[in-house]
Amino acid sequence: MGSKHAVPPPVPEPIPGGVVDSHTHLDACGATDPDILAAVLDRATTAGVTAMVTTADDLVSARWAADTAGKDPRVFAAVGLHPTRSRDLDDAARAEIEALAARPRVVAIGESGLDDYWTTRRDDCAPLDVQREAFAWHIDLARRTGLPLVVHDRDAHDAIVDVLRAEGAPGTVVFHCFSGGPDLARVCADEGWLMSFSGTATFRNANAAELRRAAAEAPEDLVLTETDAPFLTPHPYRGRPNEPYCVPHTVRDLAELRDQPVDELAAAATRNAQRTFRLAEQPQP
Ligand SMILES: [Zn+2]
Ligand SMILES: [Zn+2]
After folding, report:
1. What is the Cα–Cα distance from 112 to 82, expressed in whole angstroms?
2. Mean pLDDT for all residues in the chain
């Protein structure tokens, strides 16, 4: 890793009206340390990030997310098991995730879905049949609780759409870190599924071209913005550490791509996040 990678991206000028980081992992940013949590949230506030949904990938993370959302007005939680960890979804885990989902300021179920990238690269990654069963359980939980479902889709676009349709999609579905092209964007638009764009939609490599076409075409009322921090730092800071304060970098890049005023796109994405996660209805901590 070169020395420039250690330098965090600059804190951007806030976008008037603010922005929401619809999907982040505060614990993975080091924020289980209370001092680091305070610093991460303060940097986000400085950049005009008004709300963050910190998302669980395992049970420890889910407990921490629910606890942290209960303590700070800027933080909301999503609880579930990451698809790569689907083997951990035993009866006790199901009962605990259900209990956490009922806690105040837990605004979504997830992240769940299918990950066909790590299946061939990591021995501890759950195989696809186990992932599918866990995904179906999260879909059912989202339906029963009325909470939105946050979908993780890595190299699995068609299979995800198939499972959602076969199981019966919950009322609100978010494709977090949307990674499809215009075809998947059209499916989402037809179904009313939200597309949450991360730093990957700002990348300039050849692989990102189809994703950027999708981001350019996505209907405004279905667009969310996220960091997925500490991963996927937006262009031109790729490879450096990511945090919620970086989401305005992505919003500015997407606005240029969509040929749309920045504050207009930010306002739409904020409205969409408030509607999707019912942020205004959540109790204050
Ligand atoms: Zn994910
Ligand atoms: Zn994530």
Report:
1. 5
2. 96
Dist. CA 110 → ligand 1 center (Å): 9
Rounded Cα–Cα distance for residues 80 and 74 (Å)? 20
* pTM of the complete model: 0.96
**22-280: CATH topology:** TIM Barrel (3.20.20)
The span from the CA of 210 to the CA of 20, in Å, is 25
Q: Where are the domains of the chain?
A: 22-280
Nearest to 77 by CA among 92, 95, 61, 98: 61
User: Residue 153 pLDDT more than 70?
Assistant: yes
> How many whole angstroms from 168 Cα to the centroid of ligand 1?
21
**Cα of 82 from ligand 1 centre, angstroms:** 7
pLDDT in tens, 30-60: 999 999 999 999 999 999 999 999 999 999 9
